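Ligand-bound model needed. manganese (II) ion.
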Amino acid sequence: MPSRREFSRTSLAALGAAALGRWPVIERHAHQGVRINGDRLNAHLKALSAFGANPQGGVSRVAYSEYDRLGREYVMGLMREAGLTVTVDTAGNIHGARAGSDPAKKPLWFGSHVDSVPEGGNYDGPVGSLGAIEVAQTLKERGITTRHPINVVIFQNEEGGTVGSRAIVGELHEADLDLGTRSGKTIRSGITFIGGNVPRLAEAQRKAGDVAAYIELHIEQGGNLDKEQLNIGVVEGIVGIGWWDVTIEGFANHAGTTAMNDRRDAMLAFARYTDMVNRVVTSEPGRQVGTVGMVMAFPGARNVIPGKVQCSLELRDLDNAKITRLFERVRAECVKIGEATGTTFAFQSTHQSASAMCDTGIMSTIAAQARGLGLSHRQMPSGAGHDAQHMAKVCPSAMIFVPSIKGISHAPQEFSTPQDITNGANVLLQTVLALDAK
Ligand code: GLV
Ligand code: MN
Ligand code: MN
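Prediction:
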């Protein structure tokens, strides 16, 4: 029986079938000429980047930090200015609601996140968050009442494992709450810090049918649009992601007196492990990726052979079964490395998100709106994880990408041009209006 932390072996086709084509394609609608205010949107992005600004020009606004709290306050102020009624749900996600004219309609959700990775950039999350608020502001200024209620959502702690959106779909479990985060707080205390209510976490949940659709504007984070000089990416699917904490146990001993063949060096095992992960992941055809991104050696002294290493493993692919298969191969190779180095490896799964396919009806609608705005576009998978992949479990879900210059992301050099950001927000606005016309 697989544990809840293991990927289901659902084939990609079966997974996709559930999410495909639930919306009809809408080419034209009544508000084709309406545009967002690009100068205002880009000014808001600049203002948000002050919260956690780092000397390299990016931000360190990790979830549940003081900068995260301040950034969220700033964003909630913009939401109120845009005429939205702001609430924080029990999981700490921010919602900005506006009523629709048809009481039979479920809300259209759009948004993103404002937390960042450590030493991250100014665009991953903020573009979609502030772009969504700009759409709401534009609707208000133009006096457009949509038939569907709208809900701008800012998910909490996207970068630490899409925590807020997992809570929305009922996949944030008791054991997850005690995991540590980069803020130094556990998820449990972090949620309390940002205004959530952990004992009542379940109240944040939405079930299938509660939300009409979810649309997320985001930077591509890869270099395809920039290389091909295209304006808009229409996302077809979002990769699954597996994270493991890895502990390598050896034996700490004197670095001067212990002969080389008497050592049980956890750092040596770590070096072989990192090389092996790369070898295993590249041994199959496909777009799968694997990363060892964290390491700590103990006790951590020049003259002590490391007795313990704590490190990580991340695997990603659009095919969940492939992630499971690669993980099993890595684990088997670790047994061999352990035998050769006198060490042991232990894996603890800390986060698994299944891949998700986007709704083909909404994808075609996004493409039609981009065309209507005179913007070039292409379909593409997302190699980054997003809250949209969890929302796909409860509603048709889709994403709009804008170019990332040189494909740099999760780094201070991350950049998207003001014009590309304006284009993306206009496609979001037009897509929301088109879906509302259904
Ligand atoms: C989120 O940005 C991720 O892909 O790690
Ligand atoms: Mn993001
Ligand atoms: Mn990110």
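The domain at 241-353 is CATH 3.30.70.360 (Alpha-Beta Plaits).
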